């Protein structure tokens, strides 16, 4: 119940990331607009990364901790993605262990190392693990010596494996507002957008997605280039808001409509 968007511009030399501030978790349950960005920024001498997520509110902390501990050892964006994937798998195994195995006195390693998964009730549990989903989409956007990149780590049924690259498409969106965001992105995106044009398209996609349930009205936007990640200023955000209103919302219909159409 959120929106996170990644967009590549300047012919894949710059990555942009935007997200709302709504924090939602139906299992707790909680829903509130945070005063802090929902994504985390990392930088080293080799790269800059931004990690954002849609899903259980507490899950990203586990992923962020894994990246924070190893950021100076990551040589490129793809290595960062593999680190996120490993943390994701560990979370999935732990969740399955707690919900299915632990109450039967079994841990995950024992279940598979003993061959228990291959006989009797174990086969059913193994099938349950194969179908078990965290319901968590993690988006990794970054810049390294090869340019800007956008990846997603997810165990959703639409993926072949856990990792998907969106660099060739040029954008990605996750969360309850993703379909509305993609409506804007598919109609306006081009890989040769300037940073300024990309920020406007990103903001327009965020605004469109805010019509979806669980998406907030406050947004954070970050630019990632060879200088690392940096959030846009409040002045720039205010300018985007003003331009969007003047361009998209100020007039319900064209002022010249009566002159242009004669019925």
From TrEMBL:
Domain of life: Archaea
Record-linked InterPro entries: Ntn_hydrolases_N
Protein name in UniProt: Uncharacterized protein
Organism expressing this protein natively: Halosolutus amylolyticus
Lineage: Archaea, Methanobacteriati, Methanobacteriota, Stenosarchaea group, Halobacteria
